[in-house]
Amino acid sequence: MLEIDSVCLSFWGRHILSGCYLNCKPGEVLGLLGRNGSGKSSLLKIIFGSLTADFKHLRLEDKIINKGYLTGQLAYLPQQHFMLPFLSVAEIYKTFTPFINKRLIADQLVLANQEGTLQGLSNGQLRFLECLWILSQPACYILLDEPFSAIAPVQIEFLQQIIIEIGKTKAIILTDHIYRPLLSVSSRVVLLFNNAVYNINSEEDLIRYNYIPN
């Protein structure tokens, strides 16, 4: 199990996170919701280790760790593009698991321009490949920050299927402002609100905490 507790983070005197707790275990897809500025992305970065918190208590398999990426058990999809633009599309496809490649072919979602480089892709196409690359990593714990952003509806549906399947054996934490796809793939949903984490059981709970309008 991955657990993070007592997280404190502030920028220029403003508290972004203050004492929140989050956990996720293999076989679970945890949906993390929250308004802009609530600290969702910061929390994922702290877990991965690319952002230093003022204080945190981070445990993986009951062992206290400092930076998640040093364990080799975490993979992280940031909001920003991270793949080198000169890489070829074909090279990226070769890194996907056989399961993902087989599903891509079956759903006819293989990009036609595989001989080109990533630089020639649209933002949505590049984001789609980055998501699939992260989901192909051997890590037991996967952090996805805005995986559905800027990609086509048919690609969102495909990612949902892959996340559900991989989430049967791995732990996945994902956050996205496109909340309906997130709700449909998550086995558990929490909302980061007022520096606390609340369990969400229905859309009515999201209305109660003013995440979505009534």
Describe this protein's structure.
The chain has seven helices and ten strands. The mean pLDDT is 94. It has helices at residues 40-48, 89-94, 98-106, 123-135, 153-166, 179-185, 203-208, and strands spanning 2-11, 14-24, 28-33, 55-60, 63-65, 74-77, 141-145, 171-175, 188-193, 196-200. A hairpin with a 2-residue loop joins β9 (188-193) and β10 (196-200). The termini are far apart. α5 packs parallel to α6. It has a single domain (2-208), classed as 3-Layer(aba) Sandwich (Rossmann fold), CATH 3.40.50. The strands form two sheets. Strands 6-7-8-3-9-10 form a six-stranded mixed β-sheet, with helices on both faces. Helices cover 30% and strands 29% of the residues. It has 214 residues and is of the alpha/beta class. The protein is globular.
Quick take:
By secondary structure, the protein is of the alpha/beta class. It is 30% helix and 29% strand.
CATH superfamily: P-loop containing nucleotide triphosphate hydrolases
Which residues sit in consecutive blocks of at least 5 with pLDDT less than 50?
A: none
The CA-CA distance between the termini, in Å, is 35 Å
Rg measurement, Å: 17 Å
Total strands? 10
Helix fraction by DSSP (H/I, runs of at least 4):
25-40%
Largest sheet: 6 strands, mixed
Please state the structural category: alpha/beta
**Which CATH class is shown?**
Alpha Beta
Coarse shape:
globular
Tag the structure with descriptive keywords.
214 residues; alpha/beta; Rossmann fold; 6-stranded mixed sheet; 4-stranded antiparallel sheet; 7 helices; 30% helix
